[in-house]
Amino acid sequence: MNTPLFYEHELADRESRGFIINHLAIFAVRQYGVIHLYQNRCPHRGISLEWLEHQFLDASGELIQCATHGALFLPESGLCVSGPCRGQSLIPIAFTVIDGGVFPEIQGLGSGPA
Ligand code: FES
Q1: What is the DSSP letter of 9?
Q2: CA-CA-CA-CA torsion for 54, 13, 37, 67, nearest 10 degrees?
Q3: Of 84, 67, 76, which Cα lies nearest the Cα of 30?
Q4: pLDDT, tens digit, for every residue of 42-84?
Q5: Best residue among 41, 48, 65, 68 to mutate for probing ligand 1, ranked by most atoms within 8 Å of CB
Q6: pLDDT at 46
Q7: CA distances (Å), origin 14, targets 23, 24, 36, 49
Q8: Nearest to 3 by CA among 77, 102, 74
Q9: Domain ranges (residues) in the chain
């Protein structure tokens, strides 16, 4: 992957954004300056989390929320802390940051700029 998925400055604190890469749905959230990437797949039913495009957070902006049954997840770990999949976790996506660009490490894409 020669171009970053996005640049760090493009995602403000308590914002989220969804992406499709090689048919894999993922999303990014930023909280307290730290970016986290996860697969867009709720561990409860295996479906997408968001209620509107790019909207993965609850009203407080503090927790990731599944729109279907309201499960809540910690942005820093992906752990479900409330809802039908409590104790399960979102699947994290490893990534590297180079010159402010976020490069997800997804099989078939490589791990950074070529
Ligand atoms: S599908 Fe996400 S909480 Fe049920």
Answers
A1: G
A2: -40
A3: 76
A4: 999 999 999 899 999 999 999 999 999 999 999 999 999 999 9
A5: 68
A6: 97
A7: 26, 23, 11, 16
A8: 102
A9: 6-104
Whole-number pLDDT of residue 12? 96
Identify the CA nearest to 102 among candidates 14, 27, 23: 27
Mutation to probe ligand 1, out of 66, 80, 86, 91 (largest number of atoms < 8 A from CB): 66
φ/ψ of 86, rounded to 5, equals: -50, 135
> Could you tell me the fold of the domain covering 6-104?
Rieske Iron-sulfur Protein (2.102.10)
Query: What are the pLDDT digits (tens) for 14-33?
Result: 999 999 998 999 999 999 99
